[in-house]
Amino acid sequence: MALDTIYSSRPGDAVPLGCSSVSRIPTSQKLVVALDKPNATQAQKLVDELGPLVEVYKVGLELLFGEGIEFARGLQSQGKLVFLDMKLLDIPNTIEKAVANIARLQFDFLTVHGLDRKTIAAAVRGRDLGDSRPKADRLKLLAVTVLTSSTEEDLREQGAHESSIVLGVRRAEMACRGGFDGVIASGHEARAIRRATAENFIIKVPGIRLSGSTAGDQSRVMTPARALREGADYLVVGRPIIEAQNPAAAAKRILDEMRSVGPQSLSQRD
Ligand code: C5P
To answer: Is residue 268 part of a domain?
Structure first.
């Protein structure tokens, strides 16, 4: 489907049912550092170095299998928000029960691959079953749309016949309608996702690189300032901070660039 068709099929850009809302996020919480470290000792060293600069941490697959859940609980007791980047994908029954168990742990964000409505519905059922907190505090479900490392050629190899942006927007819209709280998506898709979903649908953008720095295995990268201008609510940053000689200085540089964008009014996003 062409992107024009996606836009024109949305009369009045009505807020789809199921999209959740988030209140205004302070810049200090918009920076999410990916703790891609092999064990809790190395991850905690980084958290100590970053101190109060960083309030939200992403615990991904590498650390999850290196004392990750216990470590994530420790982060909570240090007052940090925790984003479990598990990128779940399985049959609906398994997704529902796994998400219910994860929701009982009472972390803040969780990723699930947003490939189809059955997976999305199962994850929402699981979250609602497992998380007894008030709606505003409960686990936020984020759909992985298209990995930021994927090129157009990778998508063709997977059998997808749509471009990353068309596929990303379609999956985001499906997640929003299905009751997810947001997506994790490339900055290149953020503006179109915002238009296709709702003002308060969370858009977390990884693949963030300062101008002139190396992309590594990422393909669809973007600078912090541009990603915010494109409508990102949160920026997920791993290697540019965690592999820097001075991680705190790198985080400050990124936060300074983020602050230079200024507070975004919702109308500025369009
Ligand atoms: O080191 P870098 O900044 O590229 O790290 C990006 C982080 O975001 C990694 O932890 C990766 O797993 C995660 N991520 C991503 N693309 C997605 C979803 C998550 O890069 N679509």
So the answer is: no
Domain assignment present for 244: yes
Number of independent structural domains in the chain: 1
Q: Domain range holding 99?
A: 22-257
Residue closest by Cα to atom 12 of ligand 1: 60
pTM of the prediction? 0.89
Residues annotated as part of the active site = 87
Residue 5 belongs to a domain: no
| Single-letter residue type at 43 | A
pLDDT tens digits, the chain, 270 residues: what are they?
Answer: 333 333 333 333 334 444 544 557 888 899 999 999 999 999 999 999 999 999 999 999 999 998 889 999 999 999 999 999 999 999 999 999 999 999 999 999 999 999 999 999 999 999 999 999 998 899 999 999 999 899 999 999 999 989 999 999 999 999 999 999 999 999 999 999 999 999 999 999 999 998 878 888 888 889 999 999 999 999 999 999 999 999 999 999 999 999 999 765 443 444
Measure the CA–CA gap between 153 and 94, rounded to whole angstroms.
31
For tokens 């999305």, the residue is: 120
Q: What's 72's domain CATH number?
A: 3.20.20.70
* CA–CA distance, 243 with 162 (Å, rounded to integer): 34
95 alpha carbon to ligand 1 midpoint, in Å? Answer: 22
Say which residues have a Cβ less than 8 Å from residue 74's Cβ, sequence separation at least 6.
Answer: 40, 44
Mutate to test the pocket of ligand 1, among 31, 32, 36 (most ligand atoms within 8 A of CB): 36
Residue nearest to atom 13 of ligand 1 (CA): 206
Residue 111 lies in a domain: yes
User: Cα dist. 37→34, 45, 65, 68, 218 in Å?
Assistant: 9, 10, 10, 10, 18
